[in-house]
Amino acid sequence: MEKYYSKIKNSPLFCGITDEELEKMLKCFGGYVKKYEDGDMIIRQGETISKIYLILDGEVNVEKETYWGRRIIIQKLYANNNIGLALVASKNIEANINAMCVGHALILILNYEKCSTMCQNACMHHSILIRNLFKILSKENIELIEKIENISQKTIRDKLLTYLSNESQKHRTNIFEIPFNRQELADYLNIDRSAMSFELSKLKSEGLIDYKKNKFALKVEI
Amino acid sequence: MEKYYSKIKNSPLFCGITDEELEKMLKCFGGYVKKYEDGDMIIRQGETISKIYLILDGEVNVEKETYWGRRIIIQKLYANNNIGLALVASKNIEANINAMCVGHALILILNYEKCSTMCQNACMHHSILIRNLFKILSKENIELIEKIENISQKTIRDKLLTYLSNESQKHRTNIFEIPFNRQELADYLNIDRSAMSFELSKLKSEGLIDYKKNKFALKVEI
DNA sequence: TCCTCAATGTTGTAATTACAACAGAAATGT
DNA sequence: ACATTTCTGTTGTAATTACAACATTGAGGA
Question: Within 7 Å: CB of B198 and strand D?
């Protein structure tokens, strides 16, 4: 457990909390670290979630399966992100997503009940933590709206240009790497992979973008 | 101001707070009520948001305009909902949405800075409020994921069936009213209105659904 | 080095959609 | 009651997409 302290204390979840406090809090919240492997389900659709899952290392896809069996990638999460945080506040709500591990991952698991209810020895901690949780959830909210913007574009071309332009803005540079392979990007943008590949080629040949594997360059201001 | 107290105290934002406390809090948070008319913009894309907007009465559309001029309705909000709550936690982030008033609306406006920082006389209030904010944002988050599910369906038919089936589940009945007119529903589901009308007719003639104006009935379990 | 397999790119076709144009219905104001 | 306007439904056509089938590329292992 101790070997993860440096990772844990750098997460936004424990922002504003000193090293000594951290140890007390982790005990108080029943914190432990669990390893997941490629394809492991961390959260399953239909489950009730009562823990906070903080990614210390690795990559997690938040997915949903349609009634007709197609996969939707809602978001991709990395170190310092929380998984299914919104589900923890309402005990009676079932998870509406799956969280699937991509490659190896280390997840810190905390008991939300213990985090959210006051106790004598750590009143201030709880207060800081809940503020941090609110901030983290806000960020996720804004990203979900951005995803809605991306997939709400009318054509494959517009979806790609909107997505790439948003990524470019986030990276603050015209050259950047995207976290998806082609199939994942297609699942994220809700389009057919091969049709997307075709449109990417077209955009490249028109000189609007350039790319090699996951490295993209935007040639124009959208 | 006093005449709105009953509405305010019934909102989830002030859940768990007594009448006497409420008055103190509203003063402490610099709360006031503002009236908006049809078409008024409550939040504009690009603004920095530092206030909490609680809808006391009326209807608000959270919208986004695409680069190409088409409207996307992200969500529709009513009494007891907060507008742009996620934007308030990160001071440096510009609003990525417009919030537009539909018809008349009454909005309670609070100063978030005063809500989120401690003061001597109301420490406990702040603590309750931030918990409530977390809960509210969680709910909104879950709804955004539901919207992503709706618009991620492949065909107009699947989008309609998924949306209607989700609405039916939320209302816990097969007969329910939807909050959108046809154009708004099309903007919400990201499809063409006339194509949607056509598909609705088809679903009705096939006996899968029935509807009259905004009242819908689902005839099958999806 | 060669083989294998997974990822990516390309193409043709059938299905789906957007769009425009218009018709009918319902709501609104006078 | 009538006129006007807004909302909803219908239809044909051009544009876009999904899908299947196959080609190419590239990485990793034997």
Answer: yes
